[in-house]
Design brief:
This protein has 258 residues and is α/β, with parallel strands linked by helices. The protein starts with 9 loop residues before the first helix and ends in a 7-residue tail after the last helix.
Length: 258
């Protein structure tokens, strides 16, 4: 999927996330696949729920172009399921960390170099998931019988505040003294400016995903996945973050701790 980056535009989001998945769905129907598992995202709910846990039945309200594109694709797949019998299972993953999560290298590097500063209180919650747990959940979606048409949120065992998240990264990279926090008002302005720019031009501003990190406040409820998929992710956030930092060191993104 297209998520964020300098090359992400309205056209590229729709070409990859929406039309690309539409083509996969059509090919799945033509070839008679037993089950199509679609990775959507919890971004379809938006970023702010004031620590209230979202469920599969929470009303989607995407507040990013990426979330909008993924919700649109979900609706297309549901239409194929109803009209054409497409055997689809929709998965809404929370943010995934662990080996391979290279898109988060910049944050780990900034904290390691003491160049990162919180903006705002840092009390908004984020639900991170270890890639090993996510893969296990996806495998369950492929093997549990008679779940076609169902939707599942897959997330880690607990959510943590942004302040806790940054502290855990600092611990993993050997840093405990970060600069004082800044006010969040400029981020709110930048987020609204980015949304307006996207609506008018189809392009995102540089680092358009940055406000979501600081302003996000959302937890995920995984009771449906626990009951129907036997999904019980065992890896806690601290271990996930340490696994991520270790992989970054092996890849040369971070210096080896002395």
């Amino acid at each position: 999927a297209k998520v964020h980056g300098a090359d992400v535009t309205r056209d590229s989001l729709w070409a990859v996330n929406v039309r690309g998945t539409d083509q996969v769905a059509q090919a799945s129907l033509q070839t008679g696949v037993e089950r199509l598992i679609y990775c959507s995202t919890v971004a379809i709910y938006g970023r702010t729920f004031s620590n209230r846990a979202i469920t599969e039945d929470t009303l989607p309200r995407p507040d990013s172009p990426y979330g909008e594109s993924k919700l649109r694709t979900e609706k297309i797949l549901q239409t194929y399921a109803q009209r054409n019998g497409l055997p689809v299972v929709i998965v809404r993953p929370s943010t995934v960390f662990g080996p391979g999560a290279s898109s988060w290298a910049g944050l780990f590097q900034a904290i390691a170099n003491r160049q990162f500063r919180l903006m705002g209180s840092g009390q908004g919650h984020h639900h991170i998931t270890d890639v090993t747990d996510m893969v296990e959940g996806l495998m369950q979606c492929s093997t549990i019988p008679a779940i076609e048409g169902r939707t599942y949120i897959l997330a880690g065992p607990e959510s943590i505040s942004l302040a806790e998240f940054v502290t855990l990264i600092g611990k993993a990279v050997g840093v405990s003294d970060l600069p004082a926090a800044l006010p969040e008002a400029p981020l709110q302005v930048y987020k609204q400016l980015n949304r307006l720019t996207y609506q008018l031009t189809g392009y995102l501003l540089p680092k358009a995903d940055r406000p979501d990190l600081f302003l996000g406040d959302r937890s995920s409820h995984t009771s449906r996945a626990r009951h129907e998929l036997n999904y019980h992710p065992p890896i806690p956030p601290e271990e996930t973050i340490h696994r991520t930092a270790d992989w970054f060191r092996h890849q040369g993104y971070l210096p080896v701790l002395g």
